[in-house]
Amino acid sequence: EAQVTQNPRYLITVTGKKLTVTCSQNMNHEYMSWYRQDPGLGLRQIYYSMNVEVTDKGDVPEGYKVSRKEKRNFPLILESPSPNQTSLYFCASSLLSRATDTQYFGPGTRLTVL
Amino acid sequence: KQEVTQIPAALSVPEGENLVLNCSFTDSAIYNLQWFRQDPGKGLTSLLLIQSSQREQTSGRLNASLDKSSGRSTLYIAASQPGDSATYLCAVRAAGGTSYGKLTFGQGTILTVHP
Q1: A71 CA to chain B: closest CA distance, Å?
Q2: Mean pLDDT, chain A, as a whole number?
Q3: Does residue A24 sit at the B interface (CB-CB below 8 Å)?
Q4: How far does chain A reach from its first CA to its final CA, in angstroms?
């Protein structure tokens, strides 16, 4: 089954404790991206990757890091989480071709930073 | 910077009505526009994707149109059903250059279809 998986689905942590949220897709997609969703602010793009070893900033990259060492994986790293990073996070992937660029989303990771 | 606005923010209709959701964007240099559905506590599901060169796309009871020059898209839902209740979001992908990978979302329209 074609899917985007995220782990963990729920995470409660404390300020300053480094964490990684994993994202993996099994569709051989070139494009992967991370978003955060906050009430009243909608979905905002954090980072995206056009292919292996190619990453770029979205609209809200501060406080986040990413890496794309393999095509299927795109982890989101919070080196020193702060309470303002409490949010619902989504990973997505697509083929990024003119024929089809349908975005496939993961189920989300709800992060609480105390 | 691209800005995407969706109107109305919320909509409540009786079952069977035809309805229109609106999406507008400030920068017409887009690669494509997508409409998504999001159920509470869930991820997004793509409904329709319109390339910048296209005027509309249809899937079942859904029809999406795109007027790139005026920066507008509409999602038409025919014969609405309670199962259509969800949040509907539109998103535009920048056309090229250094912003090609960027996707900008609207804040969504919360749709409630009551029996």
Answers
A1: 16
A2: 94
A3: no
A4: 36
